[in-house]
Amino acid sequence: MTVFRQVKGEGEPVLLLHGFTGSSSTWKGLDEHLPFQLVMPDLAGHGQTNCLAADLETEAESLKKMMNDAGFSSFHLIGYSMGGRLALALALLYPEAVRSLVLESTSPGLESEEERAARRQSDEKLAQRIEQEGIASFVDFWENIPMFASQKKLPAAIQEKVRRERLAQSAEGLASSLRLMGTGSQPSYWNRLQMLSMPVLLLTGTQDEKFTRIACRMKERLPFCEWIQFDGAGHAIHVEQREKFGTIVKTFLLNQKGGQQNGN
After folding, report:
1. pLDDT for 2-58, tens place per residue?
2. In a 3-state reduction of DSSP, which class is residue 251?
3. Which of 27, 42, 63, 248 has an alpha carbon 20 to 30 Å from 51's alpha carbon atom?
4. How far apart are the first and last CA of the chain?
5. What Cα–Cα distance (Å) separates residue 210 from each residue in 37, 39, 157, 171?
6. HSE value, Cβ hemisphere, 13 Å, CA-based, for 56
7. Any residues with CB less than 8 A from the CB of 191 and at least 6 apart, and which?
8. Of the candidates 52, 55, 82, 77, which has an alpha carbon nearest to the alpha carbon of residue 66?
9. Is 166 buried (19+), middle (13-18) or exposed (0-12) by CB count in 10 A?
10. Cβ contact 202:226 at 8 Å
11. Domain positions in the chain
């Protein structure tokens, strides 16, 4: 699998994983705030990576290989929403490779098989809707779900950029992502969070009540965890409050000790 990626900046490597319907372009402008080498792939089923999604842990393995092939045996890791779930999988499977972990609006999954089965059914219906009605119809629906209500307050130019990014996706790609990388297909990582020994930063918006509750529970289980809430932000903090997001992530990454000793 060949993964399309953008690389910006110099210094310690940071792998950034976007959310569902996003692409590497979602991180555009962050290089102005983060003095690192940013590696920003289009995840499987998204953007210019021309392949369908596999399951979460297979995708994590592919990303680890991509970073190894680029000469990075270890790196900092940032994930948003779906990308955060993928980042969690990568950190649990390859803890030696992850210097630090930043999780924005992220869930460790659903705890019971009954919940996962119900979610798989819901994701399957949504995947079929995308395939049958097309991307434009789906984007009209997706941008109006309650989780993204706070984005309605953003400047029109930012809203349009997010919409263009969503419209650039393929129906086949998004459907494969829902079926194989959706929350219903993800193993529950709740009982494995205590295994993560690297520093973890949780980021949530105060208007995103669901993920605020999840982060509160996650913080209790993660051994080395800091949790920061963004007042007035919703689910996509890096879009809604980009400068503050960049400043907080920069401070966290610069505070990590011993990262350069691992080499790149």
Report:
1. 789 999 999 999 999 999 999 999 999 999 999 999 999 999 999 999 899 999 999
2. helix
3. 27
4. 23
5. 32, 29, 27, 27
6. 29
7. none
8. 77
9. buried
10. yes
11. 5-110+187-262
Calpha distance 204→105 (Å, rounded): 5
- Going 9 to 237 to 22 to 98, the CA torsion angle's sign is positive
- The angle, 0 to 180 degrees and rounded to 10, between the axes of the packed helices 171-181 and 56-69 is 110
Q: Which among 6, 35, 54, 25 has a CA at the least distance from the CA of 179?
A: 54
CA distance 130 to 109: 23
- 111 within 8 A of 188, measured Cβ to Cβ: yes
Q: Are 165 and 21 in contact (CB under 8 A)?
A: yes
CA contacts within 13 A on the Cβ side of 231: 0
Asked if 221 and 122 touch (Cβ cutoff 8 Å), the reply is no
Predicted confidence (pLDDT) per residue in 213-253, tens digit: 999 999 999 999 999 999 999 999 999 999 999 999 999 99
Dist. CA 100–CA 256, nearest whole Å: 8
Task: Please state the length of the chain.
Answer: 264
